[in-house]
């Protein structure tokens, strides 16, 4: 390499342009919501670039996609790795106001350490890297971002010989030898920068680390630029490397080969490569006056050609259904950031909820289950939407009451409405009448013939039993007391969590039924809806006026009760013991707080109390006596319950208990009377 005269023509470089695949932003959204949350930590990522192309108008490009977050670089055909750092800031204000110059200079020092320590000689890919500053607005799916490709500042490298195509410098024989050498390379990561020894008979491609022992005729690099005038961005730091480690080259001619490859019939060719000669500046010019650290440049220009960030608007390009799917649980995941880090959202996503009743309570409960991200909702009802329903039952509209002149089936209309709200919800409606005590069905066989009413009741029972067995939580949201009895029995038999909500005019009751697991609970087991009753349910609709047949409540009561019912279920499932959680146990709390047994509200007094009651050993719905009788006799047992008014009371001993109570009251009165007479009062 000979001493030459400076032509004073400054070498310019083709800067990188970033291309971000949408999959990169989807992965960032997931990491932000589930892992990073409010933490603004630096994350190591991968990009890729290539010195292969057939499109002469293509700019030097760095691509990032979902694989950028892998621990190891995902090898691709004809691609080179570029390691980067991602810093995602929580607010747009922080993104705008952060000191970009300091950020780049701080990151650039890492590159400079790689250069000065000599690590680059062993791993040439360390010469190029990138910094990605982002802000993710996950409500709008707007991603603000700005790439920087760090390069040493103020390196006034000058030309000695302007760029020439390799065919103007190399003979055809030398070019053929180069292409053969290129063909033999298996791992281009080791040759992203390299040495090239050339003479009339030989062309030898060598690793960059060989530069420590001798200088080749050429120092080369894999050039992503296709410009006939400007070499690619990686050359900037390669020249700084030479200036630092080989001060004897200062002011000397250095020959550079910009290796640009293409494929021709499966063979790598170097016909598009470029050769140039440069003069290295003094090393002191790498540093700014009075500073002992190198300054860095490299922030990317935006689409308008200015230094500034870009915006990726995924909402405008995403499939609306996909956008709903990724956005629906945003609020839930945000809860985990600060408020409830231990919240288990996956158990709610997998939950299967059965709602018995699709009226005022059922509609409100279903909407709230959607908000909690519950995956499957099945609604059961036998009614149709009437003209009075839509104003109180939030899933119905006026059109539902017009359907075929008789109104849509409530359960099916409610399920359809849920799908309109969230197309990804697994919602189904089942039109079903639940058999009830006090509603006589007759015997299965009457006069030697099958009884249609009894057969229909058995079919409904079997369908209800199947529904309960295939769901995890059962909501009892019906109008009457007797309609809750069979679901309570079947849920207790199948060990399902039951949430019960009942309304009065200005009162409400919300409770969870006690759940017995495989092992006995510690302490008394909690009771069910019927455990406080000493009478079996009967036909509550018989001989009733219109205002007695309809559930007449203050409009706000149902909303309060529905909200409490859903929140009680969620809090129960988040408790370590699930449905077996004790009531109001301060030492064993759900992440959402205590888990009461029942909540009673009195709107006229603006009061609400939590009440705990234990399982009643003579309960007509969940006692061991009833469960064993059902296990043995199954539907035959239910026939007796439906047809015989006092059957449950006789079976559980309530009849005897009431007789004993009445007898004790009479006996106490008689004893008192006799005592008064004996004492002469």
UniProtKB/TrEMBL annotation:
<dbReference type="InterPro" id="IPR000594">
    <property type="entry name" value="ThiF_NAD_FAD-bd"/>
</dbReference>
<dbReference type="GO" id="GO:0006995">
    <property type="term" value="P:cellular response to nitrogen starvation"/>
</dbReference>
<keyword id="KW-0813">Transport</keyword>
<dbReference type="Pfam" id="PF16420">
    <property type="entry name" value="ATG7_N"/>
</dbReference>
<dbReference type="GO" id="GO:0000407">
    <property type="term" value="C:phagophore assembly site"/>
</dbReference>
<dbReference type="GO" id="GO:0019779">
    <property type="term" value="F:Atg8 activating enzyme activity"/>
</dbReference>
<dbReference type="InterPro" id="IPR045886">
    <property type="entry name" value="ThiF/MoeB/HesA"/>
</dbReference>
<feature type="domain" description="Ubiquitin-like modifier-activating enzyme Atg7 N-terminal">
    <location>
        <begin position="11"/>
        <end position="318"/>
    </location>
</feature>
<comment type="similarity">
    <text>Belongs to the ATG7 family.</text>
</comment>
<dbReference type="InterPro" id="IPR042523">
    <property type="entry name" value="Atg7_N_2"/>
</dbReference>
<protein>
    <recommendedName>
        <fullName>Ubiquitin-like modifier-activating enzyme ATG7</fullName>
    </recommendedName>
</protein>
<dbReference type="InterPro" id="IPR032197">
    <property type="entry name" value="Atg7_N"/>
</dbReference>
<comment type="subunit">
    <text>Homodimer.</text>
</comment>
<feature type="active site" description="Glycyl thioester intermediate">
    <location>
        <position position="550"/>
    </location>
</feature>
<dbReference type="InterPro" id="IPR006285">
    <property type="entry name" value="Atg7"/>
</dbReference>
<dbReference type="InterPro" id="IPR035985">
    <property type="entry name" value="Ubiquitin-activating_enz"/>
</dbReference>
<keyword id="KW-0653">Protein transport</keyword>
<dbReference type="GO" id="GO:0015031">
    <property type="term" value="P:protein transport"/>
</dbReference>
<dbReference type="GO" id="GO:0000045">
    <property type="term" value="P:autophagosome assembly"/>
</dbReference>
<keyword id="KW-0963">Cytoplasm</keyword>
<dbReference type="Pfam" id="PF00899">
    <property type="entry name" value="ThiF"/>
</dbReference>
<dbReference type="InterPro" id="IPR042522">
    <property type="entry name" value="Atg7_N_1"/>
</dbReference>
<keyword id="KW-0833">Ubl conjugation pathway</keyword>
<dbReference type="GO" id="GO:0034727">
    <property type="term" value="P:piecemeal microautophagy of the nucleus"/>
</dbReference>
<dbReference type="GO" id="GO:0019778">
    <property type="term" value="F:Atg12 activating enzyme activity"/>
</dbReference>
<feature type="domain" description="THIF-type NAD/FAD binding fold">
    <location>
        <begin position="334"/>
        <end position="580"/>
    </location>
</feature>
<comment type="function">
    <text>E1-like activating enzyme involved in the 2 ubiquitin-like systems required for autophagy.</text>
</comment>
<dbReference type="GO" id="GO:0032446">
    <property type="term" value="P:protein modification by small protein conjugation"/>
</dbReference>
<dbReference type="GO" id="GO:0000422">
    <property type="term" value="P:autophagy of mitochondrion"/>
</dbReference>
<keyword id="KW-0072">Autophagy</keyword>
